UniProtKB/TrEMBL annotation:
Pathway: Protein modification; protein lipoylation via exogenous pathway; protein N(6)-(lipoyl)lysine from lipoate: step 2/2. Residues 37-224 form the BPL/LPL catalytic domain. It comes from the Bacteria. This is BPL/LPL catalytic domain-containing protein. Coiled coil: none annotated. Transmembrane segments: none annotated.
Length: 262
């Protein structure tokens, strides 16, 4: 079994989203990143209904089957971060880490997924970070990560394949090579697998959330839940309508889509 220890440092905050609406969750993540700068470290755990998230610089037609998404009412979103296209459903757990850098030394990307690695190691499952930054189980991809940075504040998120519909994932993210070649930032295709078969019987996505929170408590002096007021809900409603659900953001030519300012 792999063991990792990290000295406890500073306070941090976390939020487990009760919603499975992908537009709500991405707007909430945006709020944590852009509006809560005084909080140096924030974590978010969230699960979405079936949806597809593109990277900031990708072109939808080159990454997925748009007709299939429309026929099956699968949401399409564009992230503010870079990286490739990923499929979400109720069998995926999304982990977000938002941190400020006061040192001027930049961020250690290898450190961001370590709470996940420690949580899984505690259940006898060893996952390794590949040179590309994703997480691998026995060589198969189980988590794809992406990040964004603005004024010494980083947004890092990773989509973990816990018990996702891998057939649906493959169906949606398969396009012809001729079309894919036209993408400015094409996704790197990898063989994938779910974490669930490697974990103990009866282990749930909620158990994984709790194990990740336990690993985070080892990293911080204090880990506190966030509570929100009505103004946050108003921010989410505005951002999802004017930005994340808006066709100009999802389908705009690369580089021309408007990004919210911090």
């Amino acid at each position: 079994m792999m063991t990792m220890t990290t000295p406890a440092t500073s306070n941090a905050y976390y939020y487990i989203s009760p919603s499975t609406d992908p537009y709500y969750n991405i707007a909430l993540e945006d709020y944590l990143y852009r509006q809560l700068r005084p909080l140096d470290t924030i974590y978010m755990l969230w699960v979405n209904r079936p949806s597809v998230f593109m990277g900031r610089y990708q072109w939808a037609e080159a990454e997925l089957d748009l007709d299939y998404l429309e026929e099956h009412d699968i949401a399409l979103l564009r992230r503010t971060s870079g990286g490739g296209t990923v499929y979400h459903d109720l069998g995926n757990l999304n982990f977000t880490a938002i941190k400020n850098d006061h040192s001027g030394q930049g961020f250690d990307l290898k450190a961001f997924p370590t709470p996940i690695q420690r949580a899984l190691a505690g259940r006898g499952v060893v996952v390794e970070r590949s040179p590309r930054g994703d997480l691998r189980l026995d060589g198969y991809k189980v988590g794809g990560a992406a990040e964004a940075v603005n004024r010494s504040r980083m947004l890092y998120h990773i989509c973990l394949l816990f018990d996702a519909n891998l057939e649906e994932l493959e169906r949606i993210l398969t396009v012809s090579p001729e079309v894919e070649a036209r993408s400015r930032v094409a996704s790197v295709r990898s063989q994938v697998t779910n974490l669930r078969p490697a974990l103990p019987d009866g282990y749930t996505i909620t158990d994984l959330q709790e194990d990740i929170l336990a690993a985070l408590r080892e990293e911080h002096t204090g880990l506190f839940p966030l509570e929100f007021n009505a103004s946050v809900e108003e921010y989410i409603r505005t951002q999802r309508a004017e930005h994340f659900e808006h066709a100009d953001w999802i389908h705009s030519p690369i580089g021309r889509a408007k990004t919210p300012t911090i």
